[in-house]
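Can you please make up a protein's amino acid sequence together with its fold in token form to help me picture the idea?
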Amino acid sequence: MTSSNTLQKLRKFLEGRTGKAIGDYNMIENGDTVLVCCSGGKDSYTLLAMLMALQQRAPVKFRLIAMNLDQKQPGFPADVLPGYFKSIGVEYRIVEADTYSVVKDKIPEGKTTCSLCSRLRRGIIYRTAKELGANKIALGHHRDDMVHTLFLNMLFGGKLKAMPPKLVTDDKAHVVIRPLAYCPENEIARFARGMEFPIIPCNLCGSQENLQRQKIKEMMQGWDKRFPGRTEAVFTAMQNIVPSHLADNALFDFRGLTLDTPVEEGDIAFDEPEIAMTGMIPLSLSA
């Protein structure tokens, strides 16, 4: 970070984006208790910083509890997060659970452990939220994570599906929120460097990042480098769905379509696509 002034501008930008996402999706309400999941990575540190800052001036009152799950990975610095939480004065809970041994026992050597680890971690987080009386669970996924998940599901799962900014848990006990939904990863990374957060590596278990997700991430980074704004454009598209112009019978009654059916943007079947050319991928629209 070049100066404290630059860092403050970046903080203001991220706080603004976080506050807007919370407002747009009504993520936090008066009287909520929010369990903030903190892994020790740049995203969760930034998430906690944003929520603590917004808590000071929000029009509603809510409680924050920072939580870290110590999964007993070899080399995990168990003292880092408790020390950090104490230094910033946030209420916190450290949960110890040896999921590392379970995963290593169940997953063959060389195979990715992330899926099973994630399921185990999710169950522990839900149980902890219930024990602490937290009705909201805040995760540090950002805008880029959501876009990458969209492409991951489209290209490898055959579904038009991503990470929602807000969802209800399967047991109907909690609402999961992603307050960084509008925040770009590169700005989060800059902020984390400027704040000098005590980052804990995410690969202590020896597992590599999901290779399919990594390929998607590299693809989007390549697009953004050549044509700035691609990730932002895709995320904007995720907020502007037109079911009548896709192909899902469950979302739009194509079988029952008649001349009297009102269709959004329906009378443009033979029009040229409307493409804003500024900063967009150059396309030839001629035959």
Observations:
- The first strand starts at residue 33 and ends at 37.
- The chain has nine helices and six strands.
